[in-house]
Amino acid sequence: MARRQARFTAQDLVDDPRLRDHSPELWRADLGEVQRRLLSSAVRCFAANGFHATTTRDIADGVGLSPAALYVHFPSKELVLFEIIRVGHERVLAHVRDPSILALEGSADRLRAIVAAYTVWHARHHVTARVCQMELNALTAEHYGEIVELRHRTNGYFRDAVARGVADGTFAQVDVKRVTRAMLSLSIDLVRWYRLDGADSPEQLGEFYADLALRLVGRPKE
Amino acid sequence: MARRQARFTAQDLVDDPRLRDHSPELWRADLGEVQRRLLSSAVRCFAANGFHATTTRDIADGVGLSPAALYVHFPSKELVLFEIIRVGHERVLAHVRDPSILALEGSADRLRAIVAAYTVWHARHHVTARVCQMELNALTAEHYGEIVELRHRTNGYFRDAVARGVADGTFAQVDVKRVTRAMLSLSIDLVRWYRLDGADSPEQLGEFYADLALRLVGRPKE
Amino acid sequence: MARRQARFTAQDLVDDPRLRDHSPELWRADLGEVQRRLLSSAVRCFAANGFHATTTRDIADGVGLSPAALYVHFPSKELVLFEIIRVGHERVLAHVRDPSILALEGSADRLRAIVAAYTVWHARHHVTARVCQMELNALTAEHYGEIVELRHRTNGYFRDAVARGVADGTFAQVDVKRVTRAMLSLSIDLVRWYRLDGADSPEQLGEFYADLALRLVGRPKE
Amino acid sequence: MARRQARFTAQDLVDDPRLRDHSPELWRADLGEVQRRLLSSAVRCFAANGFHATTTRDIADGVGLSPAALYVHFPSKELVLFEIIRVGHERVLAHVRDPSILALEGSADRLRAIVAAYTVWHARHHVTARVCQMELNALTAEHYGEIVELRHRTNGYFRDAVARGVADGTFAQVDVKRVTRAMLSLSIDLVRWYRLDGADSPEQLGEFYADLALRLVGRPKE
DNA sequence: GATGAATGAGCATTCATTCAT
DNA sequence: GATGAATGAATGCTCATTCAT
């Protein structure tokens, strides 16, 4: 088995000091310190090498514990993944249905806001987002189904924002479903290449993708 | 281990009769029948479950052979993956540098053509393309490097097509790098959701994404 | 591992309310309440699933404590087993050498009494007796040796009772060793099948096996 | 964990050269040499230490293979146990319903024959018989159920033999069920203590227990 | 070319036991 | 006395790979 060979790009993620500090606000508030540290370690491992190439030892090593310690806090490796992906999707959903976004009257403003919010979250938490987008099929069928449900709801807010602008004439008569999918593709695909130390801050990328979104609906900035 | 549970979406890929017939033109001409059948089986397995969750038995079962037979034709499981990904990337590169595309004089026509070619290939061969895009980090560092090289060359043709139109005034003064990346994101991300029996044929999607590309460079269809 | 699947017969033992109340008189008088409750829980677990398939958590759960609490009261799981088996064997020994039995003049009466006493104990405490008979080889070599010693002494009373009747002509000229072993087999084997809610009370079974014992020595009831 | 400490009595079984040669006739004829050797090794291990205290390594070591080799021939450790116990019970059943036994006219002769056959099998194959009698509750519920079925059928032949003699007046008016159970107890319990190098050959013990059986039904040898 | 058998290296998970609180 | 957290040492089982046939 040539399973554990290091690949530069992804392996860097695991050791990147900028990623080492977990974002406590990312996890459920009722989790303890150790659980949050384990989740953060798991996120880095899964993002770098994928769920199946990550061992429980890898995860535990990331917080200086033995593999057995993982099982004091989580019932299985798969449930660690599920917790990460579920919370990630819940956070994204919370962002796109933010009341302040839904309160925006102009269709263009609203679409800009939702695209920016979705993009900013994926960029700022690009390591977690990578796991959320790329490790879905390591979930059990049941857990996978729960995530699909959350994605449907999130995508619905996007589709509504596009459909609204098309309906009120703000946007061109674009194919709502296809254009929405394209917008989502842009922000989802950034988990492949985004780096926090790159040219764009999450907010800058959010603005840029909001611009692109308006171009996709035929309403570029004047 | 909950490793082998089937998830509807991806697991379907393995058994989908439309995917069962390998496209012989996809593989290197010098490979024998069995080798091509093994590669096709591996593509379906890797696309459905990922490289690490696929066993050599899974691959061999797909062609009615024993796991040991794999080693008569390939030196390792990783080299099966590499062969798939390398050939996939070579095919894509060949498409985007097609002389008939480079011969197009108009910047808009050329960009349309390259986006359509790239998109059509990913859609028509979406199962292989999924492996090419999502299993990269199962490669050894060396093989990964070779693929990155191919991607750089492919991406270069995209960037040139955008830069050319910006330079000659056909397109708006967009950020070439960012916009190019966005175009690539659209076509790459389709491997997550595209189905041949869906609403769009590869060619239709190619046209649609060519349209979107022109919008992204501020030159929508009049 | 299919280790924890419940099997009806044995698993029932753990939850049988008739077994839930420990018999305080079974354990050493100097033990505290918690210790006795732990021993009773352990007896039910060991009887139901065997020593090696019983976890310290199983035992502790039976008295509503954490696994760590077990170690406040006993130095190891094996010593819990040893305590159970040792006390069980001491109790049996005490019964068969009861002065009132040894005071019986008639050889037939004495054999009847000893067989009945041995049988009654095994039947009344059949859960504990099951552990005493079936979990011996989970003991350390040293502890095993101590138990073998107790068994030899107990068996000696049986052998003497038989030998006495053979010598004084009360019984036929049977092979003392083999016949004694057969009598013991009968009462030992009841731990496999006896239930307090079955057809026979411990005393009824004791009488029945006393009858059988006399038949085995060729002196059936006239 | 003091799990692997050797206990003299039982541990001896594993290494006893007399037990090392498997009895090929004991296993299913369609099994290969390696499978039979693995079963024989497993029998010795399970008899000596019990199913749960036996590791797959122990079993494999007994035939000079690696633990993984076990899984080339059997799907799980539990199925090794089941195969042993099932075949053991089938062999016993075959012995007690031997046509030559059922052909015996006299009730005493028939009971003698069935008791002797049952006893001889348990004595000659006392190591396997020990596993058959003492490791039942390591089986899955389903497998356990299959064995219970076989035991019921075997026990039925015993009960019929007793009932017949009671009905035709050959035996005393004994309690058929209780007396039958006692006869079975005698032969089952011998797995605890029988040794092939002891005082009795299997056949001698069979004769002795046949004698005892007749005494238990009130019809001792004249 | 094909494979049944075999295995070294692992892997997720378990568990008896320890210990700071 | 009680326990939550932690862990060393397994443990059953898997799998990529090898090789004699």
Task: Report on this structure.
The structure is a homotetramer of 222-residue chains. Helices cover 69% and strands 0% of the residues of chain A. With 222 residues, the first copy, chain A, is mainly α. The first copy, chain A, has 2 domains: 8-77, Homeodomain-like (Arc Repressor Mutant, subunit A, Orthogonal Bundle); 79-216, Orthogonal Bundle (Tetracycline Repressor, domain 2). Chain A is elongated. Mean pLDDT of chain A is 90; it is low at 1-10. The first copy, chain A, binds a DNA duplex (21 and 21 nucleotides) through residues 1-3, 34, 55-57, 65-73, 76-77.
Please describe the structure with a list of short key phrases separated by commas or semicolons.
Arc Repressor Mutant, subunit A, DNA-binding transcription factor activity (chains A, B, C, D), 222 residues, mainly alpha, DNA-binding, Tetracycline Repressor, domain 2, HTH-type_TetR-like_transc_reg (chains A, B, C, D), 0% strand, Tet_transcr_reg_TetR-rel_C_sf (chains A, B, C, D), TetR/AcrR family transcriptional regulator (chains A, B, C, D), transcription cis-regulatory region binding (chains A, B, C, D), homotetramer
